[in-house]
């Protein structure tokens, strides 16, 4: 299920959002300031962000342009039309005004997650690697590279979280639907084989093993 980051310094509203989203099966994490939010995003990229504007330190308006590749729904008491327009043009995916109806909030969340899923369904890419979602194939520097089912699932996850460390448990959990036979022991071999194929095709990317934590796809 999707992971949603709630950024709001109001504990009551944050609790309401967390309870509402958790009841729908979403995984929810919290941040109470703009600075804390950046740290949480760096630690693990969420699928969606709910962003309040009135935050201590780094405000929501200052934080928004620093959130890359993640849909952001602004949840704010500010109702000025010009303010809404500026935020939407500045990168927000949607805007909902406090106080809000939970049904409307959940509908807007569902729409953004559906749009995100559609955008990433056709292919995932980073640097010189493009992965097809229709077949276990990757294009690396223009060369076709055949992958196993497990390698394809691992690379898809890493491509959607480039330059970020993905924990071993996260890899195993998120590829389980595609490769239920992959274990922590066999994962190392799958990563090694995938790394060899990328290098053999001349990619500038490497899959780095971060000792004791997981793996990171990055440009060398």
Describe the 3D structure.
- By secondary structure, this protein is an alpha/beta fold.
- The chain folds into two domains: 118 residues, Response regulator (Rossmann fold, 3-Layer(aba) Sandwich); 97 residues, Winged helix-like DNA-binding domain superfamily/Winged helix DNA-binding domain (Arc Repressor Mutant, subunit A).
- The chain contains eight helices and twelve strands.
- A five-stranded parallel β-sheet has the order 2-1-3-4-5, with helices on both faces. A four-stranded antiparallel β-sheet has the order 6-7-8-9.
Describe the structure concisely for a colleague.
The protein folds into 2 domains: 3-120, Response regulator (Rossmann fold, 3-Layer(aba) Sandwich), CATH 3.40.50.2300; 123-219, Arc Repressor Mutant, subunit A, CATH 1.10.10.10. The chain has 8 helices and 12 strands. It has helices spanning 11-23, 34-43, 60-63, 81-89, 102-121, 149-159, 168-175, 184-200; strands at residues 3-7, 27-31, 48-51, 72-76, 94-97, 123-126, 129-132, 137-140, 143-146, 166-167, 205-210, 214-219.
């Amino acid at each position: 299920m999707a992971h949603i980051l709630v950024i709001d310094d109001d504990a009551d509203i944050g609790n309401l959002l967390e309870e509402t989203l958790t009841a729908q099966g979403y995984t929810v994490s919290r941040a109470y300031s703009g600075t804390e939010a950046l740290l949480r995003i760096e630690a693990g990229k969420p699928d969606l962000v709910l962003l309040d504007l009135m935050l201590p330190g780094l405000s929501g308006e200052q934080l928004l342009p620093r959130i890359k590749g993640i849909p952001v729904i602004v949840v704010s008491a500010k109702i000025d039309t010009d303010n809404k327009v500026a935020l939407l043009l500045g990168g927000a995916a949607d805007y909902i005004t406090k106080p809000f109806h939970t049904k409307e909030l959940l509908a807007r969340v569902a729409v953004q997650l559906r749009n995100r899923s559609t955008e990433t369904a056709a292919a995932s890419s980073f640097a010189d690697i493009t992965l097809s979602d229709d077949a276990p194939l990757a294009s690396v520097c223009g060369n076709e590279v055949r992958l196993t089912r497990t390698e394809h699932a691992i690379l898809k996850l890493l491509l959607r979280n480039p330059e970020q460390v993905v924990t071993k448990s996260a890899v195993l959990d998120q590829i389980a639907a595609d490769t239920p036979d992959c274990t922590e022991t066999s994962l190392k071999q799958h990563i090694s084989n995938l790394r060899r194929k990328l290098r053999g095709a001349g990619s500038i990317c490497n899959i780095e093993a971060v000792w004791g934590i997981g793996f990171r796809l990055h440009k060398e």
